[in-house]
Fold this protein.
Amino acid sequence: MQRIGGGYTMYFNKKYKRTGVLFQGAFKASHIKTTHHLLYLSAYVNCNIEIHNISDARKYPWSSHSNYLSKSKSDICDGKVVWSHFKNRKEYEDFAKENIEAAKLKKEDEKLVLE
């Protein structure tokens, strides 16, 4: 990740005649220990745009959520590991919706606690 981020930063800075960093903070990686955690993170990452009330994840072109809901082949996403835990795409979509709502509630609760 450091090589990718550093290389892209150099390219971007040269292209736009600028200097400095593009990404804030260090890259962090965590081991996913359980299937439940993997499925939750899949839904969270795919629907993050919706959790933060920016756009509908199914229609947002830079989200892979639509790839997870359709049967069309994607060059970027391979959802076989995630899909193998659901009977069909609709079941995954329902799971993602539940997680979106739970994440929104958690976000609201954290905001109230901070106030």
Q: What stands out?
A: The chain has two domains: 1-29, 31-114. Residues 31-114 form one domain. Residues 89-114 form the longest helix (26 residues).
